[in-house]
Amino acid sequence: MKHATPATLAQIEGLLKKIRTRTVLKEKSPGVFYLRGEAFLHFHDDPAGIFADVRLDGIDFTRLRATSAAEQKGLLAVIDRALA
Q: Residues 1, 53: contact at Cβ < 8 Å?
C-alpha cells in the first residue's frame, strides 16, 4: 500500500480541512499529521480505497478505511477520542 498521492489527497480535501481544525495536530507535509512531535496520522492509496493510518494508542498505527463520507466521519470520531 503506497502513501496517498496528491490526487488522492484532493479527493479527501474536505476531511483534511476538518482534521486541520484539530490545532493540536501539526501537518508536516500534505496529509501527514504529527502530535507532540510524533507521527500520528497519514493516508494510503489502495485498490480497495483510501485508508488512514492513525496512532490511537501512541505506539502502533491502526489502519482505517477513509473512502466514504461515513468512514471519514467515523475516522474523525476516532481521532477526537484519541486526542481527548
A: no
Structural domain count of the chain: 1
Q: What is the pLDDT of residues 6-65, one digit of tens each?
A: 999 999 999 999 999 999 999 999 999 999 999 999 999 999 999 999 999 889 999 999
Structural domain for 20, as ranges:
2-83
In the chain, the amino acid numbered 38 is E
